[in-house]
Amino acid sequence: MYWRLLLCGLCLLLLLPACQPEPGDGKLTVVFPLETTELAGGQLLRVTITLMDNDGQPVEGAVVQAELRAPDGSVFTTIRCADTGQGRYLADYVTLSLRGAGGEWRVVARATWDDGKQAQAERTFKGLPSFSDEIQSEFGFWIEPPNALDCGYRYLRRYPMRYEDGSGWVIISNNCHGIVNMEIHWRRADFPADEAAAIAHAQYLADSAQSDLTRIPDPGLVAEQMTFKGYDTWHVTGRWKSTRESTGLIRKGPIEWMIFRCPNSDWLWTLVILTSSEKVYMDASLRPAWKTFECPTAQ
């Protein structure tokens, strides 16, 4: 019995080299992102990869793809990486998701070339909660921030306030090529009974300290009833103007309010958007952003 076991062990040792994986056909490296890279939801990522053969020479003309996996393990997207020469491959920009971006992200890169040669590489990087995730965590509601065209979220700022009674406001700005502001207010108040009450509510917010940009010329505002997100809503429109004391610079533009109640909420909610651009940001950034608003699920 002993000799039989010894013989079987010898056979396994002889067969072991044949079971070992073959050396790779080359070296694929994820150059960016790095292990130390930190990107928040909504930010841009551009995967960069290099491919070398086993002699250390750059490989051109390969088919290279990068699979981006979210922290929950799901495949977020798969992107083709373009050959830019000298073994360097560059993907298009990808915007990280606004929901659930916090955690470890993984890049899985694969390359094929020369009728069957293959290589693979992986890299992880740290994802941070998005601007929207942070607001939802702190205040309960969800909204996507306005995107100032080619500026992305680089100039994004928020100015929050919560009072002792639970009411409050958040101002979100993305002032890259001018003023691009969104405000979310919640306070104890009755839903406006008529046009005059809706205008008075909007004027009150415009005159308050937290909205110091919104000086409304007189005559000013127009209100109409409509439905927003399925809620009975007052839509108030007008124009604002501000003058910077240090320079005398005058800025002005359109401003709009949406006034409504969230289900099972004690608060009257008001979304405000304003910009120093007549049309560009209202149509391309601000109105699409405020349509993403979701009421808090619990009070």
Give an overview of the whole structure.
By secondary structure, the protein is α+β, with helices and mostly antiparallel strands. The protein has 2 domains: 24-128, Sandwich (Immunoglobulin-like); 131-290, Protein Transport Mog1p, Chain A. The protein contains 4 helices and 17 strands. The chain has helices at 2-19, 131-139, 195-207, 280-290, and strands spanning 26-32, 38-40, 44-45, 48-53, 63-69, 75-85, 88-91, 94-95, 103-113, 117-128, 156-162, 168-174, 180-187, 222-228, 231-243, 250-261, 268-275. The strands form 3 sheets. The protein has an 8-stranded mixed β-sheet, with no helix packed on it. Strand 16 (250-261) and strand 17 (268-275) form a beta hairpin. The protein is elongated, with a radius of gyration of 28 Å. The protein starts with a helix and ends in a 9-residue tail after the last helix. Residues 10-23 have low confidence and may be disordered.
CATH class of the largest domain: Alpha Beta
Spans where pLDDT lies below 50 across 5 or more residues: 10-23
Q: Count every beta strand, where a strand is a DSSP E run of 2 or more residues.
A: 17
- Cα distance spanning the termini: 75 Å
The CATH topology assignment of the largest domain is: Protein Transport Mog1p, Chain A
What's the alpha carbon Rg, rounded to whole Å?
28 Å
